[in-house]
Amino acid sequence: MKRLNALEFNLLLFSFVFILFLASGCSQKKDxxxxxxxxxxxxxxxxxIEDKARQRKLHEIVNEMExxxxxxxxxxxxxxxxxxxxxxxxxxxxxxxxxEFARLESEQIKMQQSVLNNYFQMKDFCQPGEWxxxxxxxxxxxxxxLKSKEL
Length: 151
What we know:
151 residues; mainly alpha
């Protein structure tokens, strides 16, 4: 199995977090379809793993990841509404805007750390062949999602 150099690893990790962010934050719906579809696909794949203990742990990790993304998505929506309200208020102070951006940045950092931890936990519980399939599945769904959007 080829080991990734630092640049390849960082690019893979960045793309993983970026796609999860896109899937979680780009819709006004409670649970955006790309996130739901991607996570459902991952749960279906995990169900094919024969070791029930590993299967159960991987489902827990994916559920934690989903919750982190949902929490960030709720914060993102809240900040978006608050910024619109502030923008409509002629007397709004700069500090109010800065506080909203700081809140969003803080939640984004927490979400990224959580997803990164989940990423490594998942990798630790997967066999090399399983991890390769998950990476390929992620890459394929990410490319499909990006091609469906005009970015």
